[in-house]
Amino acid sequence: MREDKGMDAADMGTDLQQVLISREEIESRLDDMAEKIDADYAGKDLLLVGVLKGAVYVMADLSRRLRRSAPMDWMAVSSYGSGTKSSGVVRILKDLDTDLTGRHVLIVEDIIDSGLTLSWLLGNLTSRGAASVRIATLLRKPEAVKVEVDVTYVGFDIPNEFVVGYGLDYAESYRNLPFIATLRPEVYGG
Length: 190
Known about the structure:
Layout: E1 16-21, H1 23-40, E2 46-52, H2 56-65, E3 72-78, E4 91-94, E5 104-112, H3 116-126, E6 132-140, E7 153-157, E8 163-164, E9 180-183, H4 185-188
Parallel strand pairs: 2-3, 2-5, 5-6, 6-7
Antiparallel strand pairs: 1-9, 3-4, 8-9
Helix pairs in contact: 1-2
């Protein structure tokens, strides 16, 4: 029986330009983030809110590292359309099923670039009566920020480059890479 380690850089042929963050680096950083979240939310009614589709991998791996029960819910919002840059126009594609009143909400994101979508999401969830709303993200692009958003837990700050892997996609491909990588510009027309 073959031991399946998942897809690796060699499986992508020439699509990838560079691996920025390895699987091992991601796992180590998620361990650190979970430890801080456990400490910060001790004795509180925590609800994890994942932002679809990209946050699926981060949410699953982060939640498994927590040493507490943490229910989760999902939202799908869009501000991208078909391009690789944020449009700033936010649409709810799938809303939460959970009442936020009195809950401590931790938004789990894969990446924050412009901050436009997240700023809108923070306001929206806060207006629903949550006791608190904070953000955890695997990746943040400080150079791309258009709206300052207070992010409590950050995995990695990365350059303002288009990245894929670990939930991040280009045209619904590359999400299942177990690491974060840049694509060759000719792959996405950059």
